[in-house]
Amino acid sequence: MELFDVQRIREDFPILKKGIIYFDNAASSLTPEQVVQKVVEFYHEYRANVERGVHRLSQRASQEYEEAHETIAGFINAPSGENVAMMRNTTEGINFVANALDWRKGDKIVTTVIEHHSNYITWLRVGRRYGVEVEVVRSDSEGRFDLGDFEKVIDDRTRLVAVTKVSNVLGCIVPVEKIAEIAHEHSAYILVDGAQSIPHLKTDVKRMDVDFLAFSGHKMLGPTGSGGLYIRSELLYEVEPLCIGGGTIADVSLESYELARSPMRFEAGTPAIAQVIGLGEAVRYLERVGMGEVERHERRLTERLVEGLAEMEGVEIYGPRDPKDRLGIVSFNVKGMNPHDVALTLDVSAKIAVRSGHHCALPLMKELLGIPRGSVRASTYLYNTVEEVERFLGEMEDLIRAVK
Ligand SMILES: Cc1ncc(COP(=O)(O)O)c(C=O)c1O
User: Fold this and answer.
1) Given this model, what pLDDT does residue 394 score?
2) pTM of the model as a whole
């Protein structure tokens, strides 16, 4: 694909032929036919276990599985497939890190008020279990941080800074590169939650200079049950795998064992082979379209969404006012309406799928926005169109007129 052609892209997504407007991409994306066919190819042509057999099916499956690692690593500019351990999703990647480090009483973890529960309660649990202090940095109501606040709390006791690159509620983009610098000045690790950034923005782990980066394949055109964790090279043989057993060893004796090289040492038991191979194909799809094009297209859609909703009486929008500062996510409420009722009405009246509720970010909802019932959230991806945005805005106008 040389030029970004949204109509051509839409042909690859059979669900879109059902007349649905899918604006729930932040929860999970749709999957193109090319990815579905890659998964079918695995089941039809080389359905076997990986890294365990000398027969031809196992050899082919292993080759495809390893290639997927390399493709995914290349997509985020990681040195090699060794740096990416496949996980079921972002949540598993974050929990992996929580279990990988040898916490000591008195250590400190720094996180923020805008995090998804997966990058929040995981650290509260480490705090409870090991006597680790968890410090929460607050942003303003648009999701803007004062870097001075990170400088104040990150100190030599800090072992880990855990922060999202893009908020799943506000859509704001967090300057994780600068936060990484502060963390590293104090020899702390930095983990970035890339669930909402990797699908939409070109990602370069070397430039970001992060230690861990967790992401969900199912939010970036991949199969459900796919995701990964980037681990910095220097840490590959320092951190403890979450699970060990079959597939993770170089040698075992009666008394001892030696773990295999990465990423096998992190992928215990039979992995999600079809999902990983499918995710590799999803990445190839995104690379063909070009992440720069994906971002440009989504910025246009987000801008129009924010502009259109801002003109409506009784609609409150959350997150950055300036569309330049947000990407693909617009959360809002309609005065006098429960967010679930708005979402249900859009679905019933116009087959428009949006998310409603707290979006797994209750600290943000309660402490920052003061809306414990949550919000409605419209989120876009590369196959959405300006026409869909206009249709959504039209439905919103009708809905608001009806409740007046
Ligand atoms: C910012 C963020 N982090 C983490 C997650 C968790 O992702 P998963 O459910 O794939 O583990 C999500 C999911 O919506 C998210 O938006």
Assistant:
1) 98
2) 0.97
